[in-house]
Amino acid sequence: MALLVCCLFALIVKNIVCSGDNELYKYVNQTDPATEQLVEFAKEHPRSLENLPDDVAQEISARDPDYYNRDLYNAIENQNYPAWELEMDVLTFENIKNINYNKFDVTRLWKKDTYIRMKIPIGILTTSAGRPVEIRESITLNSDGFSNPYHIDLLTHADAERTPERIVHAKGTAAIGYFIVTHDVSKYTKADVFNGIGKKTPVVGRFSTIAQNKGGTDLERATKALAAKFFTSEGNLDLLMLNLPIFLHKDPLVFTHAAHAIKRNPKTNLYDLTARWDFVTRVADTFHTFMWLFSDFGIPNGFTKMDIFPIHTYEINNKHGDRYFVRFNFRTEQGLENLPDDVAQDISVRDPDYFTRDLYDAIENKNYPAWELEMDILTLEEIKHLDYNPFDVIRLWKRGTYHTVKVGRLIFNKNPDNVFRVAELITFNPGNLVPGIPGPIDTLFRSRRSSYREAQVYRLGVNHNREDVNVPLHWNVYDRDGVPPVRDNMKDIPNYYPNSFHGPTPYVDPSRPKERLSVLQANVVDLEPINYFFNHVLDCDQRQRLINNTIPSLIPISPKLRRRVVRLFTLTDPAMGKKLTEGLERALKMPQTPPPPVLKVWH
Predict the structure, then answer these.
(1) Could you say which of 141, 161, 181 is where a domain stops?
(2) I want to staple 218 with a disulfide (CB 3.0 to 4.6 A). Which of 22, 282, 355, 478 is the partner?
(3) Which of 313, 447, 286, 309 is nearest to 390 (CA)?
(4) What's the CA gap between 429 and 121, in Å, rounded?
(5) What domain range is 134 assigned to?
(6) How do residues 139-149 score in pLDDT, each as one tens digit?
(7) 4 or 209, greater pLDDT
(8) Interatomic CA distance for residues 214 and 540, integer angstroms
(9) Is the full-model pTM beyond 0.90?
(10) Is the distance from CB of 461 to CB of 483 less than 8 angstroms?
(11) By C-alpha distance, which of 330, 310, 326 is closest to 445?
């Protein structure tokens, strides 16, 4: 049977046994002419089979007699391409002798369990150069494997099929969906993606966890992320978001050191709590994020049940050139849920891919995850009277100083057919913005837009934006050549600017603000936002759980480093420092965890 499947497309039609809608065909296998079979083709829709009851059909018919035509047309227009999978129900001539019904009768079905259903292969196996692979080349035992072109082709590709891991957010998965505008925000921005109620924009998203390598656990107490690429009519808009509303640091120079501190120790190759706490106590800007991580917000119950934030304060403008400053917030419609430590550890043992599986299953089961986009808004005049820096990425905006408007919904309704092609080849850059969104003005953003591009050039080459998953709806460039893909390489369009031969030219945007703010950022440690989080965002029980979650991470580190951590807590809030000190003293008096029981095998 395996041989038959491999050779299925080499079969020759000998004759049509009977005619009609359900035709039976007699096939002969070229590699084994003695094997003859009867085949009936079955076309099955990969999506669910749906039918209408009489009353519903009559109601639709009264409203829309062209319902079928419209449904087909709209599905194709909206890129929800209808598809059917072709299968074969197969009877051998030996089987036919033992069947007690007329298998040639087109008015009846074949009985179950009397035939074999086979999926038709997509085609003949080839090498990467397109040469057909003969069946004897599919094994190398007892042959000269190094004269086998298929063997060499397969082996050399496998040797080079891995791309470099991302330095952070290496473990990730992807989903495909769209953004739909639900509210009129033309007063604030002229960006086409956010204008026109009902407008849909295709989106591809990559969900990830910050410190884990590929193959690591989803359930680490660490920042989670969603990077979303909006394929707008004005170019790609990339929003790189975290499940926490603040960033780890504001000085871009800190990034490399922070990444090294939270990743594996270069000597032990283990995640290192000493390195993490040493870094936090030396770079106290990072303390705010760690407080969020050790709070109830630290481990979401999957990617679908977390809010997500693009972190920076974005400048936006309307068609008149009026400027506003906003923070985008994507609020989960699945309900905000987080996991306590013990539950997360239990799940991690059983299913380290819990977040990935939950997202995939939700989409496959048509429980499409969605987020509502809101904008917190400040005017230029309001910014002048604030008593805090609204461009500081490591602090929250104070309540009562801004107003919030709704924009639309982000919905993911399709899983990728191939995760590598999407999750690993998609690239993001916070500098990918569109007209109407000039973007952030802080120092961290200016550094990120450069470093993200450099990282993708290293991973995938200078033409990474020409990978299928990254290509914008429209693009005209003077970039040429380089490591593939180059697509059409702009054909014979001139490769220099300006030129006299109809090459692409820039446009004039009269609504673009003529000035941009310049922000000076203080190089001092400000613990007030952390105190505010501890005392005003968290309630009493949540504050105690933050302390309880922190203590286990302090047990393995040195007493000297513990004292530095306690001092940082105390400087932030004396009550918080006292609770941590008391909890640590109790924990250190408890007996150490005994070694696990083992099974001894005697030789």
Answers:
(1) 161
(2) 355
(3) 313
(4) 39
(5) 129-161
(6) 888 888 788 88
(7) 209
(8) 37
(9) no
(10) yes
(11) 310
